[in-house]
């Protein structure tokens, strides 16, 4: 969970009034204000082209900001670039590899770029955690795509950063790597490392994240604690499996309840707000009986994070 000092959550990244317009005229980001807390896992969700990678690239010093200010652990990314960047590890989407270097040499070299003293024990443990130790003498070009992804993670962690950015880290990788990576992320968070990830695998954000940010068309449209977000925006559905199929919903029911037919008329789906004191279920069941509609089973389900995300982005389209 986020680390607290003096009763207040301390931001490790503070973004104020950040905008970015490319030379082509494309507005990638507009007026981003966001604090990311020490020791949390923050998931940034958004469709392709929403601005996720641009935002990460600015924080990491790869892309110049337009207007605004970004502080990394109190260090300005422009005026104090080296100190800010030294605190960050980045696993980008694209595979970059130094083809003829060995795995071990590549990771050691990356650590040295940040001015960190040699630490063979740390590097060995890092490679073992990523199932790379047996490949330490292999040259990068000899590795599979999944192994190259592991090397990128090892490079990002080589200088023991306080903040780790994972930009679509598990896109197109095997299940084993995804499992290993999330086990490592949990371990890093336990040691106080802040994790910021973008992902298309919303179930991963639902399982891993402490807070969720949603970005659409270059704007942060929502930042919320994951549990609070799902409670606030989540809807529950009651599915009634009918004794006899319906061809349509009777007008008396359609006018009073948010109902849909499903399963070729064999099921009736009632959507209700979990926060309302009266859900309307009791009244619905009574009215179904008055209409002579019998059901043989019922089940309830809650909206997933993916449902919430899709509805949020669609509402801003």
TrEMBL record:
Residues 13-242 form the ABC transporter domain. SUPFAM superfamilies: P-loop containing nucleoside triphosphate hydrolases. Keywords: ATP-binding, Nucleotide-binding, Transport. The keyword ATP-binding applies. GO terms for molecular function: ATP binding; ATP hydrolysis activity. InterPro entries: AAA+_ATPase, ABC_transporter-like_ATP-bd, ABC_transporter-like_CS, ABC_transporter_ATP-binding, P-loop_NTPase. It comes from the Bacteria. Pfam families: ABC_tran. The keyword Lyase does not apply. This is ABC-2 type transport system ATP-binding protein. It comes from Pseudomonas segetis.
